[in-house]
């Protein structure tokens, strides 16, 4: 790999974060010399930028404080005004700045008309004055409003705006939003009619208090999320919806779902506890999350479902699950024997009460999590050769000798009660181990060389000398 040409290394780097690129170039001294062939896209603070390779950094953040000046040699892209002394801030702003934010120490008045017509993103989080028509440059495409802002925005927003996030307190009419908006999010107190939504809107998220009838939705809308109090008919829902989240209180007819032929993700209301036959005719459905009180048979789920999560009350016998299922999570009340699971299942998480035999687990599992009550023998886990993460809950305290041959396992977590011998039990490729409160067994010769992090409970009193040079050791007082 050391002989790889620049273009291949650059191709690899394009798929890595800044930190991963640095780690890659730290493998050898030769790689380290070539670290500046990469382009670094993650936001980096201006004080950490290497001036000799300034062009490699595409997103540089600078926080303007008292008496600070811009460095004309650094092409800042993200600027935070975090000082009450700012009268020259906009005059001297580098031409490269595209993102502007107001920090928590920003105080006083700023004439927004002075903001250059090159800014594309503005975060008004700590800007407390009223915004007037013409204040915001037409170049701005993304806006986040101040949390306390509650003034009408009619005619105040730029015509090319695409992303708008309103404050938690905002509750004003929004009949004349720019037609260019594609992503719109409201805060918790918003509860106004919204029958004139932008024609380009694709993502709409409504807050806790919203409970108005929506008589017309744009045909472009694909992602729709309601808050807690929404409980109105959705017979006029746009058939283009592919992702839908219903709030806690929604209890209206679900017949509207049958016309959502492109629906791929749905989060059902907590009160939903009806037959799921309405979901069976959705050919593109992949993600289903049931609410708190759902407790019906699930034999009619579409075969396309890959991710399934149950709420707290679900406790039905599982007979048939979608064959393409990859992720399965049960709620706290589930405690039924499971005869079989889909052969392609990769992630399985049990809830608080589950304490049944686990002879049914498919070999495809890569992540397995048990919760509080589970305390069964686990011999059958030895067949799970693809397992990378295994977590036990509070009550588990059985032999783990069968885990030794799980060579893919890298993370192992035990709960409060576990206190069994571990000699010859921990798989050789494990990198992280967490022990619970009660564990206090000899560990000499028991911990694999690849372990880099290990957490002991407060009851642990054994010698850890052999670990200190190669492993990060922590003591947890958290009663897990």
From TrEMBL:
InterPro entries: FNIP, LRR_dom_sf, STK_FNIP-Repeat. Pfam families: FNIP. This is F-box domain-containing protein.
